[in-house]
Amino acid sequence: MQELSCTWVPGTINVVRLKVDGSRTIELTSSRLSHIFGKQAVHDLYLKGRARVKASAQQIALLT
Is the pTM above the cut of 0.85? Predict the structure, then answer.
């Protein structure tokens, strides 16, 4: 399991930026994030503006 940091992309209403391995950045829509990691990840983003999710190897593979 790997922990990923999620934040909103500034100036957007549905694009999320994920930091993978501390240096790699992936951008995806909030609906795709919800599909891969569940509704709780998006819920935390709306409430706090950022979220941390634990990702398995299969989930990380879905991001690319």
Answer: no
